[in-house]
């Protein structure tokens, strides 16, 4: 099943884009453009793809150009979440040439970065074909940009894991060690958790998984850094009791064999921390 997504409200995204524009424009604005482009010059620019991939960041590019100049006329030809090919025009921007040039780099930085994440996610998702496994992201995102990077994962056909430390309980190996073991940490979590919040616990062995099953209290189990035979056994043990998530060293070339184990989710930090920027350009 392909996940559904809706555009985030502009109001939420605008502060990120505004901060990036302020960083780029500094105290004096675009001094190069002011010096060499007459204020009355108008143009229609094209934001073009120079590589094959999945588009993300068109909403942000539009916001960037409109923050610089609300009079610019912008037409988005390829929507976020859609594929693109080299030479394809994704967006046209018409109006003041100076305004277009001043917003160009911020728009491209966001769109290239996010399209890279969406494209890498789509390549992971393609490896799960014929299985029920879903690809999901992690918290290994660029500081300050988690919201839009996670949206890019959705654009690539993936799913979102928790957004931060406050929206789900994820008990990892250090929590288990500090709390005194699997049983102790699960009892403590259930004693303090809201009925609206899920509890996930990380295990790295079948023995730990067995203790989780005997103790109860978890909704999801994170099967960490397991080889494929061990992961297959773990999925069978947890079936009907826990949602399963495989994590740790989840490279694209391993996704097909891991999804064949029947695991519910594969989480990979690579989707956001190792995505290569998709080559996009603004052509006059």
Automatic annotation (TrEMBL):
Residues 117-283 form the Quinolinate phosphoribosyl transferase C-terminal domain. Substrate binds at residues 105, 138-140, 162, 172, 202, 224, 247-249, 268-270. Pathway: Cofactor biosynthesis; NAD(+) biosynthesis; nicotinate D-ribonucleotide from quinolinate: step 1/1. The keyword DNA damage does not apply. GO terms for biological process: NAD+ biosynthetic process; quinolinate catabolic process. Residues 30-115 form the Quinolinate phosphoribosyl transferase N-terminal domain. It is an enzyme of class 2 (transferase). Keywords: Glycosyltransferase, Pyridine nucleotide biosynthesis, Transferase. It catalyses: nicotinate beta-D-ribonucleotide + CO2 + diphosphate = quinolinate + 5-phospho-alpha-D-ribose 1-diphosphate + 2 H(+). Belongs to the NadC/ModD family. PANTHER family: NICOTINATE-NUCLEOTIDE PYROPHOSPHORYLASE [CARBOXYLATING]. This is Probable nicotinate-nucleotide pyrophosphorylase [carboxylating]. It comes from Phaeobacter porticola.
């Amino acid at each position: 099943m392909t996940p559904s997504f809706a555009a985030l409200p502009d109001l939420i995204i605008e502060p990120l884009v505004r901060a990036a524009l302020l960083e780029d424009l500094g105290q004096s604005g675009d001094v190069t453009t002011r010096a060499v482009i007459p204020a009355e010059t108008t143009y229609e620019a094209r934001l073009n793809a120079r590589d094959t991939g999945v588009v993300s960041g068109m909403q942000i590019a539009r916001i960037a150009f409109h923050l610089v100049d609300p009079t610019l006329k912008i037409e988005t030809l390829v929507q976020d979440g859609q594929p693109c090919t080299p030479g394809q025009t994704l967006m046209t921007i018409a109006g003041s040439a100076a305004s277009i040039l001043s917003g160009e780099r911020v728009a491209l930085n966001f769109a290239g970065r996010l399209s890279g994440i969406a494209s890498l996610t789509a390549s992971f998702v393609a490896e799960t074909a014929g299985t029920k496994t879903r690809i999901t992201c992690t918290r290994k995102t660029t500081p300050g940009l988690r919201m839009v990077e996670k949206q890019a994962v959705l654009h690539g056909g993936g799913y979102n894991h928790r957004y931060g430390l406050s929206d789900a309980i994820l008990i990892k190996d250090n929590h288990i060690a500090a709390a005194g073991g699997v049983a102790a940490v699960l009892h403590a979590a259930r004693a303090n958790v809201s009925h609206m919040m899920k509890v996930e616990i990380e295990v790295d062995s079948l023995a730990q998984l067995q203790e989780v099953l005997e103790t109860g209290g978890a909704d999801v189990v994170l099967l960490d850094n397991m080889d494929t035979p061990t992961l297959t056994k773990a999925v069978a043990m947890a079936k009907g009791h826990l949602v399963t998530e495989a994590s740790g060293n989840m490279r694209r070339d391993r996704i097909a064999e891991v999804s064949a184990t029947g695991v519910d989710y594969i989480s990979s930090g690579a989707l956001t921390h190792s995505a290569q920027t998709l080559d996009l350009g603004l052509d006059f």
